[in-house]
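Sanity check

After download, print the first record. It should look like this:
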Amino acid sequence: MHIAVAGNIGAGKTTLTELLSKHYGWVPNYEDVDDNPYLNDFYNDMQRWSFNLQIYFLNSRFNQILEIRKSGKTIIQDRTIYEDAEIFAPNLHAMGLMSTRDFKNYKTLFDLMTSLVQPPDLLIYLKASIPTLVNQIEKRGREYENSIRLDYLRQLNDRYETWIRSYKLGKLLIVNVDDLNFANNKEDLSNVINKVDAHLYGLF
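Expected structure tokens:
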């Protein structure tokens, strides 16, 4: 099985991926943040590096999906290939930070790649308000995230909501993280686990 965790920057994807992988014995598949050669440059000059960054992510996630299906194991993935094309790339294009030529090139490549892979068996979407995201981002203290603007986070959130409303590729579980603290509260984590069980195994 392929489980995927989606959500805005700071929503808690990596934390939930880790907790669920431990609980179920699933293999975690994390987003390649520390080794990403474009992230620092991107946050310092979005216009110059937006296309390079998005192509890097697209390539990385396409490879992840191929490995997931090949492994024959149940894998939980931190962020999906769809978020780049549905949220991040169109947002950069709309902000004038990616040219129309580059965006069309990117979208053509994305469409080709996704035609060759299967969507996740379950998508878990972490829904979060801007104050929650800002609080989480500040707490983890990644230097390159210091320059993220509030309007940028807000635009991403709007696009996430639009994408999730029209998501029809498979099973979907929406978790509102404003009301939960699954990292530190066992009851909150149990609540999420019960919902995952219901969606995966039909235990309603």
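If your output differs, re-run the checksum step. Summary of this record's structure: The helical segments are 13-24, 39-44, 46-71, 81-94, 100-114, 130-140, 150-165, 186-201.
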